């Protein structure tokens, strides 16, 4: 299977988007990351999606900040599921990115995750879950991750009132 494709509009998005890569790695899913700007390299954006289709890429994770057109433009060029991660911006802290990604017109779907690192990590998890629908090993890894999450909560310290 081809690796999950992680795309971002700028190298400065990597500190957020690396959390998607880490989650995929932890769940045993191959990935590759590239910088493709919807505004500065539109021809590269189109050819990247054509290549992804030819390569059999199962899921694309796209992170973008500010105007955040990358996920929507990618989705316009492919039927591959696109998961959008709003990258925090300096001016509006990622709210602009979130609204740009989540408000797609009817007929162009982008699965939109939370702003920032948590959204990137969850994009990796969701991509693994999508792949897990046809790959038993990845599904087992996702189930083990969820069990570990549950156990961490269940085995946490007992809560007590402080001495008065």
Automatic annotation (TrEMBL):
Binding residues for substrate: 10, 13, 40
Annotated EC: 5.4.99.18
Pathway this chain belongs to: Purine metabolism; IMP biosynthesis via de novo pathway; 5-amino-1-(5-phospho-D-ribosyl)imidazole-4-carboxylate from 5-amino-1-(5-phospho-D-ribosyl)imidazole (N5-CAIR route): step 2/2
One annotated GO biological process: 'de novo' IMP biosynthetic process
Gene3D superfamilies xrefs: 3.40.50.1970
Keywords: Isomerase, Purine biosynthesis
UniProt xrefs under SUPFAM superfamilies: N5-CAIR mutase (phosphoribosylaminoimidazole carboxylase, PurE)
Isomerase in keyword set: yes
One Gene Ontology molecular-function label: 5-(carboxyamino)imidazole ribonucleotide mutase activity
Substrates-to-products reaction catalysed: 5-carboxyamino-1-(5-phospho-D-ribosyl)imidazole + H(+) = 5-amino-1-(5-phospho-D-ribosyl)imidazole-4-carboxylate
Top-level class of the enzyme under EC nomenclature: isomerase
Family: Belongs to the AIR carboxylase family. Class I subfamily.
HAMAP family tied to this protein: PurE_classI
Main function: Catalyzes the conversion of N5-carboxyaminoimidazole ribonucleotide (N5-CAIR) to 4-carboxy-5-aminoimidazole ribonucleotide (CAIR).
The protein, known as: N5-carboxyaminoimidazole ribonucleotide mutase
């Amino acid at each position: 299977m081809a690796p999950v494709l992680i795309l971002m509009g700028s190298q400065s998005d990597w500190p957020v988007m690396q959390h998607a890569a880490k989650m995929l790695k932890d769940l045993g899913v191959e990935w590759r990351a590239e910088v493709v700007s919807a505004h500065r390299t539109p021809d590269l954006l189109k050819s990247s999606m054509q290549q992804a289709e030819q390569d059999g890429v199962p899921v694309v994770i796209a992170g973008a900040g500010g105007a955040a057109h990358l996920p929507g433009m990618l989705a316009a060029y492919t039927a591959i599921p696109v998961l959008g991660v709003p990258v925090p911006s300096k001016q509006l802290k990622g709210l602009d990115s979130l609204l740009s990604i989540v408000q797609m017109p009817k007929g162009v779907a982008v699965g939109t995750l939370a702003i920032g690192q948590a959204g990137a990590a969850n994009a990796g998890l969701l991509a693994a879950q999508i792949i897990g629908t046809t790959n038993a090993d990845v599904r087992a890894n996702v189930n083990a991750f969820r069990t570990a999450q549950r156990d961490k909560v269940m085995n946490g310290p007992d809560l007590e009132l402080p001495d008065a």
